[in-house]
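Bumping my old thread because nobody answered last time. Still need a sequence for this structure:
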């Protein structure tokens, strides 16, 4: 089976992890701040807080922006459930904004229209979470302008977009957002096994996130309610979690980061090759914005639901049967059974639902060979032919 994604671990990566294992610290040592520094510097962000997953990063970002009961967080329905769950962890409510069918990203027009309606009902969101679907950045400039106009905060779910750029600036620089969140899960662009990071330019948000990742504990006298009893002293000043990244993970991440540019170029080259090879087939590829560079976490195609065409499910099943590890991104979050309790129903976000009905994710990862990629394209052409018959 050709998988849809796969990590790339070098001998240098292995050596970096082994070095930590032989050192004095397995966690809470020097590797984590070094990795944070390296990611922040690469992205041009002032602060970076490393955590044990992208999901944890989303959670502490919401907490640091004071999301709580009575508040609303809006995100895209075409995402992993974590983009929405972070609001529920905080006792807040979730709503969704329909997508642009061309890119799979949250539609800035739909957001603007929904905000105008919400403003008239006094139900504006506190936080909007745009998700850079497949690695292609959302219309951040427009979303940033809307955030100024309507007074909401922006957390970029950049789990797919490590190494991507928007209008010449790296994703993670938070030019149009308060916080940007990365995931380092192995299927994403670069990996720490499990891991994530939250980037921001606001010192107070960074400080709060760093405290929330470690139980809400501070060792900084400036943040204590009274002078320290002694050098051993710390205070828990709020309820946090153990969301810490280990030094083993950070050492791996540091090495991966050095190869990030190469990872993105390989993925981009493969994506271009897919674009060329698929041109004659009755499928739709995603639109690319001229002012942004995707990190190509996913290569998604749509098999249009049209008379005379076989439909997504048949094509998907044929591909799997021919050993192609295709996948689907994503089942719209509002259609998850857990979300039904909040009153969401099929038809609520029709563009996203249609996108889901037609989407297939083709294998894309750095080490995918041209021969294997050609095999995917041939299998897709055959699947469409066979399914039509
Ligand atoms: C992977 C992913 C996450 C969660 O990241 P983890 O590191 O797996 O917790 C969040 N949002 C999106 C869009 C993702 O793809």
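Sorry it took so long. Here it is:
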């Amino acid at each position: 089976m050709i998988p849809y994604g796969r990590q790339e671990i070098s001998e240098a990566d292995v050596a970096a992890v082994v070095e930590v294992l032989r050192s004095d610290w397995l966690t809470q040592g020097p590797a984590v701040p070094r990795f944070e520094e390296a990611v922040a510097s690469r992205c041009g962000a002032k602060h970076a807080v490393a955590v044990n997953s992208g999901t944890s990063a989303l959670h502490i970002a919401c907490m640091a922006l004071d999301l709580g009961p009575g508040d609303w967080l809006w995100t895209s329905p075409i995402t992993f459930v974590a983009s929405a769950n972070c609001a529920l962890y905080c006792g807040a409510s979730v709503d969704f904004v329909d997508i642009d069918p061309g890119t799979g990203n949250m539609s800035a027009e739909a957001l603007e229209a929904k905000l105008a309606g919400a403003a008239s009902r006094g139900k504006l969101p506190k936080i909007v979470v745009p998700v850079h679907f497949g690695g292609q950045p959302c219309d951040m400039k427009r979303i940033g302008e809307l955030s100024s106009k309507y007074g909401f905060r922006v957390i970029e779910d950049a789990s797919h977009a490590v190494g991507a750029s928007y209008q010449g600036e790296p994703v993670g620089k938070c030019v149009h957002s308060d916080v940007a969140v990365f995931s380092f899960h192995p299927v994403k662009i670069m990996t720490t096994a499990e891991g994530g990071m939250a980037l921001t330019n606001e010192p107070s948000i960074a400080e709060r996130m760093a405290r929330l990742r470690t139980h809400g504990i501070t060792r900084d006298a400036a943040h204590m309610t009274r002078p320290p009893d002694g050098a051993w002293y710390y205070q828990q000043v709020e309820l946090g979690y153990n969301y810490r990244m280990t030094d083993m993970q950070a050492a791996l991440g540091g090495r991966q980061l050095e190869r990030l540019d190469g990872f993105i170029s390989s993925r981009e080259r493969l994506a271009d090759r897919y674009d060329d090879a698929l041109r004659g087939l009755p499928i739709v590829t995603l639109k690319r914005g001229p002012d942004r560079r995707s990190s190509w976490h996913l290569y998604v195609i749509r098999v249009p639901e049209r008379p005379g065409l076989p439909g997504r499910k048949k094509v998907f099943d044929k591909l799997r049967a021919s050993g192609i590890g295709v996948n689907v991104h994503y089942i719209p979050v509002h259609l998850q059974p857990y979300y039904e309790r909040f009153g969401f129903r099929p038809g609520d976000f029709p563009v996203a639902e249609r996108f889901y009905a037609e989407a297939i994710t083709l294998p894309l990862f750095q080490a995918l060979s041209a021969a294997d990629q050609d095999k995917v394209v041939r299998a897709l052409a055959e699947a469409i032919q066979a399914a039509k018959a």
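Residues 53-55, 79-80, 82-83, 131, 157, 159-160, 183, 185, 196 surround pyridoxal-5'-phosphate (CB under 6 Å). Let me know if any region looks off to you.
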